[in-house]
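Lay summary

Proteins are chains of building blocks that fold into shapes. Our project writes down both the chain and a compact code for its shape. Here are two examples, one after the other.
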Amino acid sequence: MVIRSILAISITSLMLSACGGSSSSSDSTSPVAERQVPVMKLGTRSAESETYGSAAPAADSAWSDYDPAPTFSSSKEIPLQFITMDDGVKLAVKVTLPSNAANFNEGPFPIILVQTSYNTSLGSFTPAIGGADPLMTSHGYATVVVDVRGTGNSQGEWEAFGEREQKDYSQVVEWAATQSWSDGRIGLFGVSYLGITTMLTAQQQHPAVKAAFPIVPLGDAYRDIVFTGGQVNPTFIPLWITLVTGLGALPLEGIAADPATGITALLSHITGAVTNFQVPTILKALLGDQGTAADGDFWAKRSPLENADKIKVPTFVVGGLFDLFQRSEPLWFERLKGSVPTKLLLGPWTHIEAAGVPSNGLPQDGVPELNKIQLRWFDQYVKGLPVGADRMPNVTQYVLGEERYVTSSDWPHAQMKPQQYFFQADKSLLKDQPSEKASQSIALQAPIFGLCSQSLSQWTAGIAGLLPLPCFDDDSINQKSSVVFSTPALEDDLYINGPMQANVWMTTTTQETSVSVRISDFDPATGKSRPLSNGLLSASFRAVDESRSRIIDGVMIQPWHPFTTESVLPVKPNEPMLMQVEIFPTSAKIAKGHSLKVSLSTSNLAQGLQPVLSSLIKGPLGLATFLVGPEHPSSVVLPVVPNSAL
């Protein structure tokens, strides 16, 4: 059992991919109050931003226990089998049915459907990578786990959420809904890749699908991770593609179950990786191929947030403040609320911590374990039982600095207002516009900064964070190579909750540069700067589409960058440029006596790297100058919420 547990943790870590009865702290009551100021919903590629003035539908603000007695004592796993798609490709599927030791019950059962790229053969080690959760099985749910096309034991070539893979989803649902042991009702579930397939499958509106429970799902492939700020991700993406490819070379169970199908799967995985998708995609990204490095149809098809309006089933979204998809998880709630029952839970997690590796810390502050929340969600919306899932808090967020979960009625927070803080010549950060005095701060332009930082932990999905390195919890090391602006010691707590934006004026001596912006909480008692969030932007991709940006009370707080070939702007040496940087959302309280620090540098290697060809042509090294003053009023816009909300 110990070896099994260790192996489960190890595999889940590589995959990059849970009940207290007391009430969590609340900053909302029912009915929900109207917003103090109108908010513009962030746009997408296909939709401009739009204004709305009221919060999401009211919900009870307190968590409660849900722990019904199990109805089954054990489970039965059906041997690996295959589903044939309409083009002849066979997908591997594993089924686990509820059972009682003395008397096997063949159902029918409601289904939990999981679609994975991480090999069904490994799923039995942990639900995080596709295994049946004993809690769900004991309450009468059958679990169906399918290897998506080109992965695990399935035939075909993998293309990471490509059109053909997405076409398979509805055929898999149809198969699961019509089996003799199925009662035709399906709940979609999964972590990471499995959570993304959950959202994409829900958009196909198959009548058998009744609810969804995605954990750490991607929303916008380009902006969330692959090309954040217009720079290729050099940490997670190569490791992830290598991992999926490697596991696809191990269809051992498929070969044993059906040698012809298994061997065909192995050969198609290898040839597809080398000639079709994995290797060519990585090379094109590194070389700055415009079809890959710029936003376009390739990324739109792989960005499920684009079609959020097609989701018509109740959806519970789980995310993390330091997750790979930190940007999009609250956007899922914003896009779905008002049209379907929707809830949002954001913990203080990296990617693997949200999956429970080594732990997500739940239950805490009355928030139950994730699988108990999932059970309640599916019991109500899949089985149709009146168990109060609709009365769970709309939004539950961990507040850094407060170190507890807080519930609210909406995201963005109904009381949030943008507050602009301006960079000053003396490196202070004040609400006042810059004085007549101007200043320039020169920084080395090199792709080396951020290597040891919280970003390294975040963009390796939390794996690097398992190492006891102080730079993961303290930005002081990175600040030594940055230009740092700081508020005076705060006279009162400062509660921020939502997206942020930095407006940075700068010049460069080369034809390309970038700016990395870090937000941290400085504690004078310890001398440490706790990382809160960060943003990254390439200068050539600095164009902003205001029609898709988030504007609140007349102030832009979340810019929308097109990142298309057509939107590229020239970078002229020594000519001032305004860099409007999207800083990913967070929730944090900077305590009285602390200071909020904003650190500027020219790279964040853990998060993004300029494409190799572009860097060589336009100059990999140089000097950047950050400008401050009346003519160049650099600033940061914070999402400030009244302390009374806490």
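And here is the second example, written the same way.
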Amino acid sequence: MTQEEPSVAGQPPGAGQPPIEEQKEQKEKEQKEQEKAPPAPEEERPDIRELWDGLTAVAAQPGNTSKRIRTERDALRGLSAPFGQATVTAGRAYGGDHFEFVVGARPDRVTSTQVAGDKYGQITQAFVTPSCFPVVAEAARSRPVLLLRGKPGSGKATLAFRVLVNAGLRSLYEFAPGTALGELGEDDFQRETGYLLADLSRGQAAELNRFEVQRLAGILEAKGSRLVVTMGAEVRLDDPGIAAEAVEVDQSVAPLQVLEAHLRWRLGTGSEGRVAEFLSHTDRIRDLVGEQGPLARLGRAADAALLLAEAKASEPAAKVLEQVTSRLALRETSEFDRWFEELGDLDTQCLALAVAVFGGETYETVVRLARELQDLIQLPESIDNPEKPRSAPIRSTAARRLALLHAARFEEQGTAQHGGVPRRVVRYLDQEMAARVLVTVWDEYDEIRVHLPEWLYRCVGEEPATVAIRAAVAVGILADRAFDTMRTSVLQRWASRRPSRNKREEVSRRHSAVAAALRTMAANPRLTEQVRGLVQEWAGNEENPFLQAAAARSTVALAALGEQGAAEMFTLLHELAGTAEFYVVDAIRAGVADLVEEADHRRGDVITLLRHWVHSYDPQRRLVGEIAFLFTAADLVAPDPGGGTEEWPLLLAMSTRDPVCRRNVGALWETVLNSADLYGEAQSILTGWAQNVDANPAARRALARLLRDAATKPRTVRILHYLIRNWFASAEHPSPENTAREVLSLLDGRTLLR
């Protein structure tokens, strides 16, 4: 990133130079002026045919869009807490999976999540029965809608799920926090299923009345289902009728009981000795669960049990208890602030921030990025700030530094350019730590905060490419606290900067980062109008095609803004598709792929839009539609719809579930196979599909049906026969002979398959 200024010959470093801050300001000013400068006169715009040449390469290694979106989701999981509208609940299921973060405005449709896996195991196998259980269980059996009240940390949610299980409802769902009871209708409930709406707010409780409860009870009774609504003891119910029906949750379960029950369940059979070893440290255990103090929450006890169970069996119990106590203490604000302040040096603080933003990358990558942040912050070498003496010992090992940060290295299956490889990535041991570090630094540490936007801006050019996505998500998170700063210092520069040469990958990576940042912001209700305004402003800037390209690439953010956002998205894409500008077309094809990959409920509409383009009277839109379709067909893959292990082309999988989509995809294939410009690329990508599905009978039949329906013109039939002959004669391995036979059979009408 930045390099130190060379010292003048014969003078000590720093002598005869302007003050440090002036040097930095001058460098930043020069860099921003270069970014705003127009392209050099000798620069030639890339030809749009370059997009065609890359399609075959994409088909050879599909799935890049999916990998990038998975990275974005992974980064968002680690940094989801700072949103003001986020609901952060500790110990939903007596601790659950540490913390559960639900971020963003509720979508158009009411959402619920099935309770399964570890959380379901806690409910059914590690439940500690409170004295009020018989009363609550009887109420749950007799009332379709049950209201539970209790103090924070009393285990209301787990109790609710357990009584639903005892009522014979083995399938459990939880509604998103903030769900309004008045919005729940018949379509939001399944048959013989238990539901929970946790932590009803005071505002929601004030709107609750007998009519609403009776309406929901009627829907649930008809379906044989039940709903439990929990609320804090301080929440008042204004309607006297329903207030009298609310059941109080008592405090009869002790945190130590929960800890022991969860320890035995997690450690499994034969663990009595290890459990006894932990419990023998009576005073430390009581401090750990906060049994006598304000931290006496059942969720904390369950969290403690999970952390104890994760420790190596060979570790002494006393040492494990000390480590777990320290990790849980960091969840208290005052202790967390003191921990970060006492990390010891800027080097470690920068590493803490780099782990927060880039957790999920390899340790080597995170350390390098931390060093680059430190170089931005730290004064360059001078008389008053000499470099470290030669041969000074390196006293802190990686393991020691990560232990200090409560982070660790984990083995994960990576997604390298030439296939998945195992790699060791660094992450915080507790998910919420990443968000807390990022927010704390921004809010409290001025000397670091002033350099954060520049650091995140520069990280977009770092390797691997996933670094840019993680930096973008951090920008989207911080925009909630400083939108104007993130817009001017990072987003606008990513969007508008011109490459020094024709570096298409450089522009594409920056615009992918812009899209990731804006989609993160779009999940925040306080920023939806800013996202909409920014994308529309860029799209209307006809003098800067890079800004228009950034807008096209970011249309996926508009898709998250409800029906109005979706309408704006389609209008914007259609308008920009009329341009011949290379970077805009490149952005449209990537943006369309993002929409098909990510926006499930918009997929059909996006495919319809592509079909409209390829049949347009405007030759430019026809070309853009063909390029976007072929890129989507080449890159996107999906799990086998039948539950098999092999991946399918995503558009083929969509076609098996939706007849309208199959007709549209078939029509698009017919168009590109007959294209005067892209017929060669179309044949190559279709051959890739044939190879992909050759070993899967269901996928072969689906492709054969799709191509049979696509061949409405004699010319298309001839093209497909030509391709089939090539597939039979192919020297490549594997040769798609099985697919060739299947397609030929349907084309010639020799089977009864329909």
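What can we say about the second shape? The CA atoms of residues 357 and 474 lie 6 Å apart.
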